[in-house]
Write a structure and sequence with these properties.
Elements: H1 2-9, H2 19-51, H3 54-80, H4 95-123, H5 132-159, H6 162-191, H7 196-223, H8 229-240, E1 247-255, E2 261-270, H9 275-293, E3 295-304, H10 309-325, E4 330-338, E5 343-352, H11 359-373, E6 377-386
Parallel strand pairs: 2-3, 5-6
Antiparallel strand pairs: 1-2, 4-5
Helix pairs in contact: 2-3, 2-5, 3-4, 3-6, 3-7, 4-7, 5-6, 6-7, 10-11
Amino acid sequence: MTKFLLRTFIKDYENVTNHDVRQKYGMLGGFVGIACNIVLFLSKFIAGLLTSSIAITADSFNNLSDAGSSIVTLVGFKLAGAPADNEHPFGHGRIEYISGLIVSMVIILVGVELGKGSIEKIINAEDISFSLISLVILIASILVKLWLGIFNKSLGERINSSTMKATAMDSISDVVATSAVVLSILIYKFTGFNIDGYIGILVALFICYTGIQTAKDTLSPLLGEAPEKEFVKEIENFVVAYPDIVGVHDLIVHNYGPGRRIISLHAEVPSKIDILKIHDTIDIIERDLHKRFDCEAVIHMDPIVVDDEVLNKTFKRVKEVVKSIDNNFSMHDFRMVTGDTHTNLIFDLEVPFNYKINDKEIKQKISDEIKKIDNKYELVISIDKTSV
């Protein structure tokens, strides 16, 4: 069914790196979500009236909120596809995250309101009228929501959209919530125990939990999250594969929305190489990064000495010391300034965020070990925080 819808409504649907195709994925998901959730709302609302069940009614309004969320998602994808302009030179891609955040807030609000209604139902309990038609409607809605969850998950994975993946999780939580409602009806039918209000609270809690999780998923890229380690490693391997590129450091990935990334990095090059030659290589790498990873790239050249035997030997020994303290540490921009009384070893050290030892202690620990090699060595370390 998913492939049928994609082939029918999206031309060139397999070209998911294309911004227009990606936008159509989101809009298709929005339209399908609106249609399914409105049908489910009307069906469950009628079932709730027939049975006088607050849990069913609560579940129906959850579907209505889902329909509203699908509208927000649809509009969000449409606006996110707008091209760059003077006020927004990096495009409007982050609107997709904002729409996801709005959806989260709506979900949480609905959950709170339905929780209030369920508490009132516990205080003023009413009998539930068993209706076979209502039961059939609920079971059918579970199947529809299960398919909708699988559908949205498939779209989200195809275009790597946190908003679509969150929508999928919302549908799966609805499956659990509606299953709980069906359970409460069956328990009342065969035992006479009315747990309708309590099930209504569970449904409300599920809704709130889903809203909070969705908010986390959309807030993280808005605040600026660390890139995936695999992606960083892939970029590094890609760049160092070019001739005359000795190493890569200070790699930063700026996310301006799905498919809108800007990469900046420092590429280490031999200090004695022809500047025009290496400049041409850097230009080629930037263009190739754009083609390979669909991103804009800015590369800063860092000249390093590669033919000084003493410096290279010292660098290797210092690196061994650094790695012995913590294998997650990395160093770059290594220089030696030799004097009559001492030798300065100058380098940048990358340390993970929230490391267990503070910067001062890290420097002292490295210094103590380096002094064992040669007491004339003095360290000048600049510590950079990194997430990878």
